[in-house]
Amino acid sequence: MPYLHRDGTALYYEWDDGGAPTVVLLHGWCCDMSFLAPQREHLAAAGHAILSLDLRGHGRSDAPDQPYPISGFSDDVVWACGELGLARPVFLGHSMGGNVAYDIAARWPDLAAGIVMIDSAVARPAAARAMMGPIAEKLSGPDYRDELRRLVTTTFFLESDDPARRAQILQAMTAAPQHVVVGAYRGLAAFDPAVGQVPVLSPSLYIAANEPSPRSDMARLLQLIPHLMAGQTVGSGHFCQLEVPGQVNAMIDRFLALAGLAAR
Hints:
Layout: E1 3-6, E2 9-16, E3 19-26, H1 37-45, E4 48-53, H2 70-83, E5 90-94, H3 96-107, E6 114-118, H4 126-139, H5 144-155, H6 163-173, H7 178-190, E7 204-208, H8 218-224, E8 229-232, H9 240-243, H10 245-258
Parallel strand pairs: 3-4, 3-5, 5-6, 6-7, 7-8
Antiparallel strand pairs: 1-2, 2-4
Helix pairs in contact: 1-10, 2-3, 4-7
């Protein structure tokens, strides 16, 4: 199996041959690369080279007992791109992976050809941010799997979401090690896209799920990225990339075409 080794930590990846620009797929909190399988298949069929990663602490990558800030994930991804010789890829992330994509575009503006953020809490509303500290404390307790299951069930799903898929998602997420669950959640809580006021210049797309409480404050996000393109799915919860992949993939295709980033 293909691994990259960074400072003693094995990072699992998979590669699909294709044309430029390469699309780097970044999964969410307590997930793995399989959570973006519909996008991988679709974009590979369209002719893109695809780099799929299990972020540090997730999937088949090593899970050292350490802090898990968003900047740490970004550092790993940019390092991996360097190791694999990728120039000007598109970074496509779901949930926490969208935060990583944003962070890369802000900190390495010459690297990112474009970014796609799928229902990511990049500019988290103030009320939601205030709740994260108490939630992190609950996740730090002995019943963290029950707390995680409750959190995901009450805030990530809609009644219209497929029950079998919901069960699979819960099973996968609750298998994550507790130190990663808590560390990455605290990393999300600490993430502030306005730190340093570094503008994101890359073409950017935000796809929101059809949820009653938005993950991102869109007015604030548009202040940070005035050229942002935005869309919303119909009839899907947080895991819209799995629930309604046709809707999500169509928006990605249109964005890539308009930004001059279609496979070549």
